[in-house]
Amino acid sequence: MKLAEALIARADLQKRNEQLKRRISLNLKIQEGEKPAEDPNVMLAELDSNMKELTKLIQRINKTNCSVQFDDTRTLADALVERDQKWDKRLILAKIAEEASIRNDRYSRTEIKIMSTIDVAAIQKQVDQLSREFREIDTKIQGLNWSIDLL
Predict the structure, then answer these.
(1) How far apart are CA 136 and CA 127, in angstroms?
(2) Do 86 and 71 contact (CB within 8 A), yes or no?
(3) Which pTM value belongs to this model?
């Protein structure tokens, strides 16, 4: 199995578990004398089985990510952390730029003038640069995922 296939399987298991949790919750209580639409015990057993499978799969994914070289200085795990941090910083800076760009209209010269405390254009350039770096590293990661066998 390729790493990319394992990542798809992980996402499927996670979605399935969320669906099971919702279905179990809907069938936990019933009116006396009624039967639940689905047996929560059967779904709990399936959830338990899925969780065990998911645990093993995540462990294999993590082991693979830590053992594969991404480039001369980083493992795939290192590159994933770097990519995620770039995205998080990009989101923070984009929010800052958006908030600093909001204009407060003044209706007369006597009203207080609100000024931005940062250079919005410079922040936006950083956002664009981080977006570009994120795309580049993510593209390389995605390509690598389809060429690496899961450990």
Answers:
(1) 14
(2) no
(3) 0.78
